[in-house]
Amino acid sequence: MKIKRADDAVSEILGTILLLTIVVAVFSGIYIFVLAPPSDIPQPFVTITGKMEGTTITLTHRGGDSLDLDTELVLNIGDTTYLIAVESCLDDTNGDGLWNIGEQVVYAPTEDITYLYVDAKVIDSETNSMLFTAVFQEATSSPLSGNETFVFDDTIIGEPGVLRLPGKLFVIVVYTNNDGHGFVETISLETGTLDTLEYDDQKGYDPTIIHVSGEIFVIAYRDYNDHGYLKTVEIDDNGNITDTVVDALEFDDHKGVNPSIVHVYNDFYAIAYTGNGDHGFIKTVEIDDTGNFIGINETLEFDSVKGLTPKIFHISGDIYAVAYSGDNEHGMVKTVEIEGDGEFNGIKDTLEFESNKAIEPSVIQVSNNIFAIAYGSENDDGFLKTVEIADNGDINDTVLDTLEFDPNKGLEPDIIHISGDIYVIFYRGLGDFGVLKTIEISNSGNITDTVVDTFNLPNICWGPRIIHISGEIYALSFKNSLDNGYMRAIQIANNGDIDPV
């Protein structure tokens, strides 16, 4: 019996050893064939550098092996990961189908990534090896967080103009103070004023500002004699303003009220304004990339009776349109042709979109040839209408659709796009308090009969303006009853729901 038990014990030991041997062999096989990289495919040797300027990410091949087009770019933006084939964004300069030394992969996200975490990796798809990795931007809170409302100037009059370029962490405001002087100010909505320049130490009324090139911006306004003026200023990426104006040009030595300016082509810009006798004029001027004025190019009188508060906007190619208050303050739209060299080729078409009053129209493009116009009308009611303007400047003879967005008061409206068919109008409502309303406009120009959402501000708002900051966050600028220049945050969801921040 003892010998038999010994045989049994030996058998159990041998069985255990054999089982362990099998397990080790199996796991070794798994490691060799699954986990271990193939020994016969060498990892590419390559040097890649990367940078992010604004929202554009650029990766440059600096040396080593050429890479196949199926090499993957992996981008982490906020909480989202994007897998992008190098082929889709490679500048293949020699056309050989490889990513070679000196060639660049350029990717520009369509979303606003100003405050989001951003990193990039380059993965060789054949060996599944990482060839490059870098963090381009750490996540930061929106400049509006924790700072709902603040005063950017306690002595302003008139309507402040406001501008923000994509990727910039500040807003640019142009305004007139109580002495009538013209100021340009850069503002971080987290820390307040960054820098200020008095661009006109006498008068600077009705100012508006647009970007020219690089760090150069141009301000259009009227001076103490109501003459029309342009001045260029320099603002760097940190919001610092150069201490002196770069250049100045008097574009009308009689009258230049409510100027509206748009870029035409290369160095040419067009200014629509109310001129001598309240007639409507457009002038083209040339401004080089350094901010120097080459001079006035040509003048067109687009309305010889009356052209009040004009807004000029681009249609297609050489075709532009002006929406304004014409004779008896009727709402008018006219299309004009402005060639690339700043020359006019006449008025193309005209539409009276409002037979009553149309005060201070605000215009936005809805789809290819559909435009929406918000304005204050008879008895100060707020109206929105859609019109169709063809690429050649022909205007559909009838208004497509109409919505009375406020039957009590809807003055100085500013309309911008939110998402899909959703738009928001910020305006001065009943009692002069600020009101936000979201509405729905289809690509064909149909306006939904009911407002999506409404938000009433507790502030009196003169000269209301709204701009997008990041994600669902928007900034409102306005003047209150005490002549304080205010800025505050608002949250507008893609479905049109409005909430305070």
Would you mind describing this structure in some detail?
- The protein is mainly beta and 501 residues long.
- The chain folds into three domains: 1-36; 46-137, Immunoglobulin-like, CATH 2.60.40; 149-500, Neuraminidase (6 Propeller), CATH 2.120.10.
- 7% of the residues lie in helices and 55% in strands.
- It contains one helix and 38 strands.
- The chain has one helix at residues 2-35, and strands at residues 46-53, 56-64, 67-68, 72-77, 80-85, 98-99, 104-107, 118-124, 129-137, 149-153, 156-163, 171-177, 182-188, 192-200, 205-213, 216-222, 228-234, 247-252, 257-265, 268-274, 280-287, 293-303, 308-316, 319-325, 331-338, 344-354, 359-365, 370-376, 382-388, 401-406, 411-419, 422-428, 433-440, 453-460, 462-470, 473-479, 485-492, 498-500.
- The strands form ten sheets. Strands 10, 35, 36, 37 and 38 form a five-stranded antiparallel β-sheet that branches.
- Strand 21 and strand 22 form a beta hairpin.
- The radius of gyration is 31 Å and the shape is globular.
- The termini are far apart.
- Residues 1-39 have low confidence and may be disordered.
